[in-house]
Design brief:
The chain has 689 residues and is an alpha/beta fold. It folds into five domains: 2-155, Beta-Lactamase; 159-240, Orthogonal Bundle (Helix Hairpins), CATH 1.10.287; 249-398, Histidine kinase-like ATPase, C-terminal domain (Heat Shock Protein 90); 419-529, Rossmann fold (3-Layer(aba) Sandwich), CATH 3.40.50.2300; 558-688, Rossmann fold (3-Layer(aba) Sandwich), CATH 3.40.50.2300. It has 20 helices and 23 strands. It is flat, with a radius of gyration of 41 Å. Residues 419-532, 566-686 form the Response regulatory domain. InterPro entries: CheY-like_superfamily, HATPase_C_sf, HATPase_dom, His_kinase_dom, HisK_dim/P_dom, HisK_dim/P_sf, PAS, PAS-like_dom_sf. This is Sensory/regulatory protein RpfC. At low DSF concentrations, interacts with RpfF.
Length: 689
């Protein structure tokens, strides 16, 4: 723009001089020669001043200006351009000299014919410098159009930009190297952890006195904690390296959230906390996305809530969010924990950030950072609100679309006009039950003590009673008795999984049935709508209470799974080989061990047939992927029955699973090896046979 103004100024000056000459040629009234000379002199001074102004303006705003005719000969050169060649401007007139160009940078051709180019020149002093030139056509002559070129020294800017690019490239390379290092270290850590946790499981399956069992369970618990840290580091390294691929497959988000809450319930109840779930009625449950990563987000947030909450509980809500193309779902995790100071909320999701007193918290501080990265990868949002001393609320919105052909939400049965009394000192389970019942048309009343419950029963005709056993056995018996006396048609007792066997048959305490916390909506409706037995309460005709679910020992879970099966185990780590061999032998299988890829192929050819092959992906010589490919190729050539191949690896990324299946594996088992998965593999193979 500056150069254009400068050229325009010179053009105006020339035009003014032309007007003077024209006026002199016209037949104007005769004026004295002295007056004409004086006027002409004044006009010439004005033109000279204008020319000087524009010359100074050009010199001040550009460092090098040159104009050439159609043959490339210089018709004008500024002092700055001449200085690049070490000569005076007048010495360049008529020449075709130009500074040496050793490198060209960015260039731009504009629609108006103006071109912007960057060139690295070697001036007369020999020190290369970068110039940004503007080229534009000037007034044409008989020998063709001329070109005006004006440039500015931009060496500092170009070198600074290049330094920044180089620094960015180095940082990215260092980041990739760090991520690869973390992935490698994580793999190497998982390998010995496989031995630690697997041997602990085997040891727990042997006769131990109580003290020994306590010690073994302690180091198994520590091993699992270490495995969780390793998994977090590995996930973070994948995210940073941009290697975390998200699946886009249909999944039931309601079933997923229910499963996570029930998985975390024992951990919460061990601390005397409750965990409750509420799922909106209008939610389309079938979504398209990565179910494993959604589960990871919820486990991280709800697990943290349980970890830092000492009294009260944790509430998880799932509801619909957004409309149209942005329609998704929202997860809300609330707790009654200590809360987070307001000034710390903005840095909660940063890497390696922990609680306010980091010495009192375990872990790497990566959980929330990974959660935020996963949410952002799904184009979602995450936010936190907290009040010190009153708890925290985390809200995650994920715009995962409904799956094609997803069923429309089915309306829940109506409970209108029933009146239901909930007696529970509960921060979340009782309010969630009341919310669920109200959406179905029932009138729900919540009180937090047995005394308040007895008062309510004496004053209002309720159709159903739900009482929490945590109020005490004596208190809930009194509530059940008062409900029976008041004509309440259905009385339910709220139990934790640990309460089921200890509490005994609900009918013996005056209740019709029970609900297990966290309560599923369908269980609630089933209990409230099921026909009442005709015999009086307290008889043996009430529904029997199922036995509690117990975690099975490894031996009972694995018994009688694969007698007579021949298994090829390809594993180069001696501890892991011993672990898998002992576990398989306890199932009655005969194990043939191969310690590298070549031994594995030799065993398949010389010691087969096998019912099952467990092959480690990383082995010396031929790796497991190449072994699988060669086995499949030989089967194709000979027409042999396909061997059931299962990949064993400490690399658990989606790309690793994909590579294993692409190589010909039928199944994939991550390390540390879950011994309870082995019976299913042997049984599946037996059924296929």
């Amino acid at each position: 723009m500056t150069l254009a103004v400068s050229v325009m100024g010179l053009s105006i000056a020339g035009a003014m001089l032309a007007l003077i000459l024209v006026s002199l040629r016209r037949r104007e009234p005769v004026v004295p020669d002295s007056d004409i000379a004086e006027a002409l002199q004044d006009r010439l001074w004005q033109i000279a001043e204008s020319e000087e102004r524009y010359r100074v303006l050009v010199e001040a705003t550009t460092q090098a200006v040159v104009q050439r005719d159609g043959q490339g000969r210089i018709t004008f050169a500024s002092e700055g351009f001449a200085a690049l060649l070490g000569v005076k401007p007048l010495e360049l007139i008529g020449s075709t000299l130009t500074p040496q160009v050793i490198e060209r940078g960015a260039s731009e051709q504009r629609p108006d014919g103006v071109r912007v180019v960057e060139e690295r020149l070697v001036p007369v002093d020999g020190v290369p410098r970068w110039f940004s030139f503007i080229e534009m056509p000037a007034a044409g002559r008989t020998d063709g159009p001329s070109w005006l070129r004006a440039g500015q020294d931009v060496t500092g800017r170009v070198e600074a930009a290049r330094s920044l690019d180089e620094a960015k490239s180095r940082a990215e390379a260092a980041n990739v190297a760090k991520s690869r290092f973390l992935a490698t270290v994580s793999h190497e850590l998982r390998t010995p952890l496989n031995g630690i946790l697997g041997m602990a499981d085997l040891l727990l399956d042997t006769p131990l006195n109580p003290e020994q069992r306590t010690y073994v369970e302690a180091f198994r618990t520590s091993g699992k904690a270490l495995l969780g840290l390793v998994d977090g580091i590995l996930d973070f390294s994948r995210i940073e390296a941009g290697r975390l691929d998200l699946a886009a497959e249909p999944f039931d988000v309601a079933a997923l959230v229910e499963g996570v809450v029930e998985l975390l319930a024992p951990r919460a109840q061990d601390k005397g906390l409750e965990i409750a779930l509420d799922i909106a009625d209008d939610l389309t449950a079938l979504r398209v996305g990565d179910a494993d990563r959604v589960r990871q987000i919820l486990v991280n947030l709800a697990g943290n809530a349980i970890k830092f909450t000492q009294a009260g509980g944790v509430g998880v809500s799932l509801a619909r969010a957004g409309e149209g193309q942005r329609e998704g779902f929202v997860l809300t995790i609330e707790d009654t924990g200590p809360g987070i100071p307001e000034e710390r909320i903005p840095i909660l999701f940063e890497e390696f950030e922990q609680g306010e007193d980091s010495a009192s918290h375990e872990g790497t501080g990566l959980g929330l950072a990974i959660t935020r990265r996963l949410v952002e990868r799904m184009n979602g949002t995450i936010e936190a609100r907290s009040t010190v001393g009153r708890g925290s609320i985390f809200r995650v919105v994920l715009p995962l679309p409904a799956a094609e052909g997803a069923p429309v939400p089915v309306p829940q049965p109506t409970l209108a006009p029933r009146k239901i009394l909930i007696v529970a000192a509960s921060p979340y389970q009782a309010p969630f039950l009341a919310r669920r019942l109200s959406r179905s048309g029932a009138a729900a009343v919540v009180v937090d003590s047995a005394e308040a419950g007895l008062d309510a029963l004496s004053g209002v005709a309720f159709d159903a009673l739900i009482a929490d056993r945590s109020l005490g056995d004596a208190a809930v018996r009194r509530l059940a008795a008062e409900a029976a006396r008041s004509g309440v048609r259905c009385s339910l007792i709220l139990l934790s999984p640990f309460d089921r066997r200890e509490f005994g048959a609900p009918s013996a305490k005056g209740f019709d049935s029970y609900l297990i916390k966290p309560v599923r909506a369908r269980s609630l409706f089933d209990r409230l709508l099921e026909p009442r037995p005709t015999p009086a309460r307290g008889t043996a005709d009430a529904p029997a209470l199922p036995a509690p679910v117990q975690s099975e020992p490894v031996q009972s879970a694995m018994a009688q799974s694969g007698p007579g099966r021949r298994v090829l185990l390809a594993e180069d780590n001696p501890i892991n080989a011993l672990l898998a061999t002992k576990a398989l032998e306890r199932l009655g299988a005969q194990v043939i061990l191969a310690r590298d890829g070549l031994e594995t192929l030799a065993a398949v050819d010389g010691q087969g047939p096998f019912d099952l092959a467990l092959i480690d992906i990383r082995m010396p010589g031929l790796d497991g992927l190449e072994v699988a490919r060669r086995i499949r190729a030989r089967e194709a050539e000979t027409g042999a029955e396909p061997l059931h191949l299962v990949a064993l690896t400490a690399n658990t990324g989606r790309e690793d699973v994909t590579a294993a299946f692409a190589a010909g594996f039928d199944n994939f088992l991550p390390k540390p090896l879950n011994l309870r998965a082995l019976p299913g593999l042997l049984n599946r193979r037996a059924e296929a046979a």
